[in-house]
Amino acid sequence: MRQRRKEPCRAQRQSRSCDRCEQPTRARHDETELIDMVDVNVDPMEVEVLGRTGNLLRADVYLPSHGDGPFPTVLGASPYQKALRYLPPNGVFPFTEYGPIQLYLDNGYAYVAMDLPGTGRSEGTWDPVSRAEGEAIHDMIEHVAVQPWSTGAVGMIGMSHYCWSQWNAARTRPPHLKTIVAYDGATDMYRDWMYHGGIPIQGFLSTWLFGSVLYQHELRGIDFHVGDKHEFVYDILSHPLEDEWHRRRSPFWELPEVEIPVFSIGVWGKAALHLRGNFYGFERVRGPKKLLVAHPSGFAAAQQYYFDEQFHRDELLPWYDHHLKGVENGVMEQPAARFYVNGEDTYRSAESWPPPDVAPTVFHLCGERSGAVASLNDGSLSESAPEAEQDATSWSYPDPQWMAGVTVFDKHGVPDHVARVNTFTTKPMERDREFTGHGVLTLYASTDQTDLDLFVKVSLVSGDSDAGLPLKVTQGWLRASHRAEDPELTSDMRPFHRHAQIEPLVPGQVYKLRVELLPMSFLARAGDRIRLEITNQDSLITDAPMTHFYGTKAGTDTYRHDRTYPSTLRLHERPRPGI
Asked: Most exposed of 449, 497, 511, 512 (fewest Cβ within 10 Å)?
């Protein structure tokens, strides 16, 4: 093993003395004095590992300042350059996803921060979330596990891309990897974010690929071309169907081989990027496992929560203590699934996901006006089957009033996100009702084009006029030419689309389309309504950064909702305690 101390502190680089740097135990430096170490009281050492591909892989190792070890180890891996670890966890630095390192040092863990191949100081080609990348992490895990300072028990840590790395490494089954705590991370790269329902993502590529990876490397003098990092965007665009390229970078397909303990933690507020992966990850692994779905309402909130030390003390640290230190603390006695119920603002639990006591509730789309919203059609959702022989909603696009995606603005500049989309709304609820589990929209549709896109949202509309904007509780997407389902992975409430070939539509012909809705949990109180929105593009305000490429869509689509073509929204409903 080669070891290299991190660069001298800024005082030393500027030829000024820094007495504290010469102490045997590294003390915390003033933030104005050393930007490298703003939140840890030790300097790391760099380790080099010759991976199986012949490239040098590098990581920074942080060891506790107290005790001689050996220590159990938590390892995080990302393309976000360990040299940038000094940056604070803030929404303007969305790539700071490693968690509270000092907390783990204080509790007797070594922390390893790895640069993935082709990024930062690691050699090779950047091949994001590919199996080869997982094998590189595997090699680093096995290396650090046999160092004198390590007990040999390694867990993985980190959110978002760090979580991708956890799923990815776990599928390669490193012998010394004892557990992962997968906070907020996709498992199926094609379906979870690259091509929602077969529709290519656009906004996230800018904020993530360019903002968090390419530009940040360039700022540190590492050219875009080093590690072929610039090629990834072209690779995505070159593979619009799920082929072997996508399979290699989707741990989803190998998760049934994972037998180590897994704690999967999803976040409702990042549903359009990672949530589906956390549920499928929990479902598919075969070892001891738990699921937690947390309350943060958006990207920045999810990041802040991951740096909340109390959250780690309550949830993550006990898990690591049990599986890496052998502490008997009861973490495995908790319910299999715990989740925050939106609208009720509390956590509930169940012995499985979806909870065993849920059952599908069917809402029928109807052309009758609900009187609830000024939208293109103001249709209704009814729990009664349609009686009309013919009932349909037609609309043309692009809408001339769209300004920020589907969002329009009134004369005072106030945005309206539903005025120019199709909506179907229930009557006010007569009692409190909890909808927890999965959902599916079955829509009978036709078009005068050879394809159509469906962007679907379900929102909770409060009966309290002062409650503010409706709360989005689930969403889904589908390109109709990708409508074919995989019979082995499809269920009644959860279609799983194959995305293996394009099947153009015949203009004017009615097709049955089933849109998978992301997992959900929300309480609709008495007086609240449920609203379904259907359109063919995003709001650039409410859906950013998970927005999609619009393309050249121009035409007229028709949604049927009558006795012959009964379009439905089906949601898992759970009985309320005491009802």
From this structure: 512
Give the residues across from 515 on adjacent strands: 441
C-alpha distances (whole Å) from 475 to each of 215, 518, 520, 546, 558 are 31, 6, 9, 12, 20
Can you tell me whether residue 161 is helix, strand or coil? helix
User: What six digits make up the tokens of 264?
Assistant: 């999967």
One-letter amino acid at 302 equals A
DSSP string, 337-393: EEEEEBTTTEEEEESSSS-TT-EEEEEEEE-S--SS--SSS-EEEESSPP--SS-EE
pLDDT digits 0-9 by tens, 80-136? 999 999 999 999 999 999 999 999 999 999 999 999 999 999 999 999 999 999 999
The alpha carbon dihedral of 220, 127, 101, 67 has a sign of: negative
Q: How far apart are CA 131 and CA 129, in angstroms?
A: 7
Cβ-count burial of 22 within 10 angstroms (0-12 exposed, 13-18 middle, 19+ buried)? exposed
Phi, psi angles (nearest 5°) of residue 128:
-55, 130
Q: Are strands 359-366 and 56-62 parallel, antiparallel or unpaired?
A: unpaired
Residue 291 to residue 282: CA distance in whole angstroms: 6
DSSP secondary structure, 287-319, as one string: SSEEEEEE---SHHHHHHHHT-HHHIIIIIHHH
∠ Cα 473 474 475 (to 5°): 140
**What type of residue sits at position 126?**
W
**Which token pair is 234?**
């072209």
Give the pTM.
0.92
